[in-house]
Amino acid sequence: MRWMMIVPLSALRDNYIWAICEGRRCVVVDPGEAAPVLSFLHEQGLTLTAILLTHRHADHQGGVAELLAHSAVPVFGPHSAAMPLVTHALSDQGEFRIEGFASPLRVLAVPGHTEEHIAYLWSDALFCGDTLFAAGCGRLLGGTAQQLFTSLQTLAALPAKTHVYCTHEYTLSNLAFAVAVEPGNLQIQTRRRSCEALREQGRPTLPSSLGDELQTNPFLRCTETAVHQVAEKQAGHALHGPLEVFTVLRKWKDQF
Questions:
Q1: Would you say residue 66 has pLDDT above 60?
Q2: What SS3 class is residue 146?
Q3: Could you count the other beta carbons within 10 Å of the beta carbon of residue 3?
Q4: For residue 84, is the peptide bond before it cis, meaning its omega torsion is within 30 degrees of 0?
Q5: For residues 6 and 158, what is the distance between their CA atoms, to the nearest angstrom?
Q6: Which residues are catalytic?
Q7: Inter-CA distances, 31 with 15, 62, 101, 229, Å
Q8: Quick one: pLDDT band at residue 91, thresholds 50, 70, 90?
């Protein structure tokens, strides 16, 4: 039996390109540049089989053209005029397979960071681009707070064992904000120490698990009393419901 292996490829300043390998085939997620992918394929003797894109930003699709010049493979991604290299546009809740891989992928529409953003659920691995980060979430760069809040709720409903493969090494800065939101949350402090140790060793803090996110990510904890209270203090007025709490937290994080 072949096992799916998922490898982080460092790119640009703080991006990860996720390489998903089964047998001698490889799929890459959000290749912001081509060089790390081409080096990995050459070193490991792998064949590029497909490219998965989550949204339109250049640091997530900037390497696609060069990769296609080496291998004419399908490019899966959302409907967007800003993503002309997508050959297979995908819809919410759709399911598809990639040749040579045993498990199907499920597509989730998760707008908010951008209006067209999608995520891929592949077995228990979630490739969520810039929607959900370890201890954080994406900025609003095209979508609305309502959209992003709803998208995060969609992801939060997945099984707690789901592995979260986001695409930036933002974990320590996100955890610093999480501590500011919930200074009494000991799980956040423990996670912060663990992630600091990983970074000191030059290791990624990813993937995380959805279970960890539910315990330590303030953007998934907007119904918690402590989070609601600190958001009201930050806003300077009463907040009515988790969406208002989320909106205050997102604006606060932008300035943190």
A1: yes
A2: helix
A3: 8
A4: no
A5: 20
A6: 55, 57, 59-60, 113, 130, 168
A7: 9, 7, 20, 40
A8: confident
